[in-house]
Specification:
The N terminus is likely disordered. The chain is about 60% helix and about 5% strand. It is built from 24 helices and ten strands. InterPro entries: ABC1_dom, ADCK1_dom, Kinase-like_dom_sf, Mito_struct-func_regulator. Belongs to the protein kinase superfamily. ADCK protein kinase family.
């Protein structure tokens, strides 16, 4: 009441289910979000009658009584958890910081405590509700520049490695429904214990009747049942919080997950993405096609909810101990990862947007023989092809031109291409800082190592100070660029895990590939001999500049070696 009733709607909403009059009142006040929730679970105004004959008749007469009963019992509980968690976190922030001056040490200390408590509450909510909530938690864990460090760290440490698993009975239900028989009938062998579990599915090792060892990805049974209602409830809570706290604006994140999740839930789309990815490397990047691999799909044993693919042995890209045992140098993997995703972003325009460590395996290149010094060439194995983004020619070319300008510290080119994405005069410098995790002064520094990756980024340290600018920038940018930013964050994390120190060559690779993409597009548009010659001279100039930068890099590394 002291805050004008800002929390009333959240606290009332947490006890809303079963109160039709409250539902109508909030529907009138806040639009159709609640109606969507009730409609999805098909028990709207009859929620109060679930224990009566009316509710029983409603369930019995539905197309799928078992699923309807499940929705009418589980969705309200999930909704209650979400509403209560949101209200508790909002209340904690609002009242814990009362009377503490901005910028004071005491406020910073209390803020850290509130961030930590709230992150744990959100983590607990994600694990209890599962599914889409874990997917949202994973996204938050990769947004160091947007959320407080306590949130990013908590989500990153837990959401990728501790996802809940389905029971073997649930797995059997999916296999029987999708393939027409029990796992033991469809496969010669089927390990009931999953080797990995993620937010949407889990993976079991099996062997086909032909003797092929395969990985079987089985979708969690609750995903499609509650996804629509989950999105509606999360959307309602996020919009409600934004109404009362305008600086809290994560609507774009909910929109993004709502758009991408249906595609991730269709494993046939994932299978097609993996084949298209490999085809792009063979056609557009043949020079590294042998060094990038995706497991072959067994189409005869795959459906929209179950995916059977070739089983690949290999450590995750951040498992340094296992990688070194293979005789592979970590910096060779870092170069390959940078090259692979630069080719995707700037040349293919078809980008794997979830390249965290669990989705990147490493193995020795099958055709490689050990060198005289025992070093082996790596092959990068890409997993989980559910989340891809296509870049149209305009977006792909301008994004390549932007990164070319960033690597070359070209102030005019940086501004010009940032403006094309809608960053504006007031925020284009901030946009570059988010992309590179460097201050603007560092971005335009002509030194060859100006974009070197550091363990502690300028922007991450001062993130809370810049929160309003970040929120406004993300509102302006095209959503496809938001996913490219997320991909950059994942790759930055992988490189840091591999090398645990700045690695300048990654940015030279990005600069070279982005420049090649820009030149290729200009050559396609060249209509006259003069314009073709002009582009050709630009290509020579860029090549010479990158050679000089590499020489400067070697000189810098040699000096550092001598100083040890």
């Amino acid at each position: 009441k002291r805050r004008g009733g800002k929390f009333d709607v959240l606290l009332q909403y947490s006890g809303l289910i079963g109160q039709e009059s409250e539902y109508v009142k909030h529907k009138l006040a806040y639009g159709d979000e609640l109606a969507v929730v009730m409609k999805k679970i098909d028990c709207g105004g009859d929620a109060t009658a679930l224990g009566s004959g009316v509710g029983a008749a409603k369930i019995a007469s539905s197309d799928d009584p078992a699923t309807t009963l499940k929705l009418c019992t589980t969705v309200p509980l999930r909704l209650f958890r979400l509403s209560l968690t949101a209200a508790t976190i909002a209340f904690d922030y609002e009242y814990s910081l009362i009377g503490l001056p901005e910028g004071s040490d005491e406020r910073a200390k209390v803020e850290h405590q509130v961030h930590t408590r709230s992150a744990r509450r959100l983590e607990d909510l994600c694990f209890k509700n599962g599914g889409i909530y874990i997917k949202l938690g994973q996204h938050l864990g990769q947004l160091d520049y947007l959320v407080p460090l306590e949130y990013a760290k908590t989500m990153r440490e837990s959401m990728l490695n501790r996802c809940p698993t389905s029971t073997y009975d649930q797995v059997c239900q999916v296999v029987k429904k999708e393939l027409g028989g029990a796992p033991e009938e469809i496969f010669d062998e089927f390990d009931p214990v999953p080797i990995a579990s993620a937010s949407l599915a889990q993976v079991h090792v099996a062997r086909t009747h032909e003797g092929q060892k395969v990985a079987v990805k089985v979708q969690h049974t609750h995903m499609t049942d509650t996804a629509a209602a989950d999105f509606a409830t999360v959307d309602f809570i996020v919009n409600t919080l934004h109404r009362f706290f305008p600086s809290f604006d994560y609507r774009w994140l909910v929109d993004e997950v709502r758009e991408t999740s249906p595609k991730e839930l269709d494993f046939l789309i994932e299978a097609a993405n993996s084949e298209k990815c490999m085809d792009n490397f063979r056609r557009l990047s043949p020079h590294i096609a042998d060094y990038v691999y995706a497991p072959r799909v067994d189409w005869g044993l795959s459906t929209s909810k179950l995916l059977t693919m070739e089983f690949i042995e290999g450590p995750q890209v951040n498992d340094l101990k296992s990688i070194k045992k293979l005789g592979i140098r970590p910096h060779d993997i870092s170069k390959l990862v940078s090259q692979t995703f630069a080719e995707m972003m700037f040349k293919h325009g078809f980008v794997h947007c979830d390249p965290h460590a669990a989705n990147l395996l490493v193995r020795v290149l099958p055709s490689d023989k050990s060198s005289f010094f025992g070093k082996r060439k790596p092959q990068l194995v890409l997993l989980d092809h559910g989340l891809y983004k296509e870049l149209d020619t305009y977006t792909r070319t301008n994004y390549a031109a932007l990164w070319k300008a960033l690597v070359l510290a070209d102030v005019k080119g940086i501004k010009e291409n940032c403006m094309k994405f809608g960053a504006g005069e007031d925020l284009y410098t901030f946009f570059t800082s988010i992309l590179t995790m460097k201050s603007w002064e560092r971005v335009i520094d002509p030194a060859v190592d100006h974009l070197a990756i550091n363990d502690q980024s300028d922007l991450q340290i001062y993130g809370p100070e810049y929160f309003p600018q970040v929120t406004e920038l993300l509102r302006r940018l095209p959503r496809v660029i938001l996913l490219m930013m997320k991909t950059n964050d994942c790759l930055r994390s992988v490189n840091n895990a591999l090398l645990q120190k700045p690695y300048l060559e990654s940015f030279l690779i990005i600069g070279r590939v982005s420049s090649e993409a820009v030149i290729e597009e200009k050559l396609l548009r060249a209509k006259t001999l003069f314009s073709w010659i002009s582009v050709w001279f630009e290509e020579i100039s860029l090549e010479a500049r990158f050679i000089l930068m590499r020489i400067a890099l070697w000189t810098l590394q040699f000096k550092k070696l001598l100083s040890l």
